[in-house]
Design goal:
This protein has helices at 9-54, 62-85, 87-114, 127-133, 139-148. It is mainly α. It has one domain. α1 (9-54) packs antiparallel against α2 and α1 packs antiparallel against α3 (87-114). The protein is rod-shaped. It starts with 8 loop residues before the first helix and ends in a 5-residue tail after the last helix.
């Protein structure tokens, strides 16, 4: 079930709790992807460098030359993909969105403590802007964050 910013304050709190966790979860996924991709690029580049260095003193056979050439091409493609996919930039965007929703959640907690019997309608200034400025969260990540979110009383 998708939560929205419509309804009472508890519903808004639930939504902000989910949305403060989901971007952090997605940022962690992008951080791991960036690191794993980087490790692969470093390994392939190191193998190419070693093969080229080892072949400097002798004329290697054609298979070694072709293998080194293919690995060199793979290293170039992988490093270009790492830059193009921008996992570190996506990680930063999602962390920033998570920070915004965490602030929103803390504000809802404060308001609910201060006015426990009030049932306000959502749509306060800033909440819709936060949704528009935040990167998209895949349903799978959203659902996992919703499962971890605190249940309102």
């Amino acid at each position: 079930m998708k939560w929205t910013f419509e309804g009472n304050a508890e519903n808004c709190f639930q939504y902000s709790a989910i949305m403060s966790n989901a971007p952090y979860d997605l940022a962690e996924i992008y951080r791991r992807r960036h690191r794993n991709f980087g490790v692969i690029v470093v390994i392939v580049t190191a193998v190419v460098g070693t093969a080229v260095f080892a072949s400097l003193g002798q004329l290697p056979d054609l298979r070694i030359q072709l293998g080194t050439g293919l690995l060199s091409l793979c290293a170039a493609v992988l490093s270009a993909l790492q830059t193009f996919l921008g996992f570190s930039e996506l990680q930063t965007q999602h962390k920033r969105a998570g920070d915004g929703y965490s602030i929103s959640r803390r504000n809802f907690e404060f308001l609910m403590m201060k006015y426990p019997t009030t049932n306000g309608v959502a749509g306060e200034p800033g909440t819709s802007e936060l949704d528009r400025a935040s990167p998209t969260i895949p349903d799978k990540i959203y659902d996992a964050a919703a499962a971890k979110a605190p249940v309102s009383k």
